[in-house]
Amino acid sequence: MTEIAKLKKQLKELFASQKLAVLATHNEKQSYASLVAFASTADLKQLLFATTRATRKYANLAANPNVALLIDNRSNRETDFHKAVAATATGKTTEVGTRERTRLLKLYLGKHPHLREFVSSPNCALLKVKVDSYFVVNRFQNVMELRPR
Amino acid sequence: MINPAIELQTVGPNDRNRVGGKGFSLAQLKRGGILVPNAILITSDTYASYVSSTGLREQILLELSRKDFQDMRWEEMWDASLRIRNMFLKTAIPPELVAQLKRVIASGFKSSAVVVRSSALDEDSGIASFAGLHESYVNVRGIDSILDHIRLVWASLWSDRALLYRQELRLDVERSAMAVVVQELVEGEKSGVVFGKHPMDESQAVIEAVYGLNQGLVDGIVEPDRWVLDRKTRKLVSHATATRNKALVTSREGVSLEPLPAGKLSGAPLNSEEVTEVFLLAFRAEEIFGSPQDVEWTFRQGALYALQSRPITTASPDQRDDKRPWYLSLRRSFENLKALREKIEHDLIPRMVREANALAERDPKALADSELAEEIARRSSIHKRWTDVYWTEFIPFAHGARLFGQVYNDVMRPSDPYEFVDLLRGSELASVERNRMLEEMAASLRADHALAEELRNEDYARCDEDFVRKIEDFLEKFGNIFVGTGSPQQGRKALIKLLLEMTDRGRAKSQSRSGSITLLEENFLSQFEGDQRTYAVELLELGRASYRLRDDDNIYLGRIEAQLFLALQEGKSRIGTRSGIDAANIDAQEVIKALTDVGYTPVSGDAAPPKTKRGFQLTARQILGQPAGPGIATGKARVIAHLSDLMDFRAGEVLVCDALDPNMTFVVPLAAGIVERRGGMLIHGAIIAREYGLPCVTGVTDATLLIQTGDQLTVDGYLGIVIISRENGSSNL
């Protein structure tokens, strides 16, 4: 298996094992971090999350669509230092358009079925991050960058 | 609160996981009516409490997870193990635990001397035999010293050999724990081991016996007498006598090897009644445990004590492809290493130099094709022979530096586990002498602009005669340092290019640390008195010789390799001219065939596989290796895939390579830092980096694939990480 294939497999396993990601947004003055329920497309090129339009993060995204998402498998134990894997995805966020909404919503609710009501509410937006890069950290300090082309 | 220790007589049937294999067996022997020394068993809960409350547990696991175990070379294992050992040395036992331990130890032994032995949990279980893997310390006195030695025994759970062994048996590293036996020292007049069943012949049993302490036999320092018995008939089959001349005995602290008194030289350590008594001990132990045992024993004033007992296990699986177990088995004792040094310095190296000189006298260009073919075959076989010597004699000698390192760290407990390396740099390395000559030539060029200009314009005819002679002397003394880059003329040209680069860069910082080395040496030696001091001085001397040889042997082997290369180049060049093919990748056998048979078309080596396009692009951003030279450096990467890449090396670049060979290190004075795929603190890259005070990270898996020439690198030689900045483009994976 190539290094790229290994890393992609590791990411898929990580994404399957985790429901939440930390989303970092930014407005002119301040960075802001939020927990979001995320899902990824099978090709790892897009990450999805949902938020209502009244939130601070939505306002930040409207002003600056560039985000970072952190997904990790820490267990809040000391062993995390040698065992945990963390992936930071960077990319640009847009609201999912009508044409692809059905397909991506199905994917998203497939992972988070309990959010059906939340996502269907009129003020909730389904957003997608087109990933520029994944920065994958393991072994405490080993960092690899994986870029979809 | 845990109960830190159990007395031998109170060990219950379910206590194996708390007292370890050795402690559990001793308790069973005692219950079975066999005389064993008085002992206290420090439980594995105590170990667990120590590593948890001090944070050591995760520190160890972090250290071990720097790299896949399968990718680690033996030297890297040793380094990891050394760093872990230092963590134990520097991490005090918490005061509360100390108070508890002091109470139980004082109640058991008061002021008598003890042996502190490892008792690992998986040990001696019948599946795994850990004989000699972990440490045991004989003749330890005083409560503080006993506590110190308990920590050393705990640390030995992470020795390189123990790590490898547990890996082979697939034992879970994360759950490893260690109990310790603190045992009254029974100072026997004669001691040994009895194997209830001969490891090679099931119908027999064997006794090995020496005068003095058993450790002399177990560590392989004292040659034993050996008796073989038929298990069924219980009749003696043979008695092989040893060359008896020394015995290991207790000294003021620890043990020492002493000449045997004249009265004991000719007499066997055991008489026939004692031989029978020892065999009966083995058979009694076999009854107690239900399987044949390997029992260590000693006689004190006529009383036979069993010191420990473990089941006889078969050898670990033979893994011929994995050379690491073999390296790790090379832990040679001090005496053996001294003899090896003598052989290497006074026999092997001089012969190697003579051989290289003799080869250099025969010019491949002057030979007819058939003679050249023979010469290539001859040089290949000479090269192979010396490469074999390198593996069988020189590599084991590296353990001299390791042995010194361990003693230094035990005594000095330095914050940098590699401080001892500075002390080993007592004398000059051949490659440093070579680099100094280069530096001197560069200095003349710096002072003489006209000469530099003539060289820059390749106007050699007008060059100063003295300078030309210096260049020729250099090439003669060190051979063509650009071996692999082409003809001797090209080598000369490349050397001049290098000198001009050095001239432009300015003078290299030289590492004159002789003052601090003297201080280190004084501090170290002042820790010893009397005989121990003589030992320390000899050990330092041995360590230095070992360290020096790690560098120099490559240079000497490199000279033989260079002669083979020259003959091969000549052969390839003739084949290329004759048949018009690119002969660069043809191997030696094919060159020989084509030279012998004009009609033969040689098979060329494989070209690199074509690259395929992928949907993702991978770039390493920060990669882990081992800290091998302290400091932080930034600079552009120069990846050395072929020796010819060295010709493009520019001052201030970071040298990135697979394995730094002493024949490549002439560019080191130009480098800002070193990154190497091969790992270890005593490999050449690390040695030379330390010599020049350059930040260095070794053991970086796939270094030359993940890093590209031109990448901006930060080499963090403190933490052992390399940070890569590259705007675009992927690595070669």
Automatic annotation (TrEMBL), chain B:
Its EC number is 2.7.9.2. Keywords: ATP-binding, Kinase, Magnesium, Metal-binding, Nucleotide-binding, Transferase. Its cofactor is Mg(2+). Pathway: Carbohydrate biosynthesis; gluconeogenesis. SUPFAM superfamilies: Glutathione synthetase ATP-binding domain-like, Phosphohistidine domain. InterPro entries: ATP_grasp_subdomain_1, PEP-util_enz_mobile_dom, PEP_synth, Phosphohistidine_dom_sf, PPDK_AMP/ATP-bd. It holds the Pfam family PPDK_N. It is an enzyme of class 2 (transferase). Residues 650-720 form the PEP-utilising enzyme mobile domain. Gene3D superfamilies: ATP-grasp fold, A domain, ATP-grasp fold, B domain, Phosphohistidine domain. It catalyses: pyruvate + ATP + H2O = phosphoenolpyruvate + AMP + phosphate + 2 H(+). Residues 17-321 form the Pyruvate phosphate dikinase AMP/ATP-binding domain. GO terms for molecular function: ATP binding; metal ion binding; pyruvate, water dikinase activity. Signal peptide: none annotated. It comes from the Bacteria. The keyword Zinc does not apply. Belongs to the PEP-utilizing enzyme family. Catalyzes the phosphorylation of pyruvate to phosphoenolpyruvate. This is Phosphoenolpyruvate synthase.
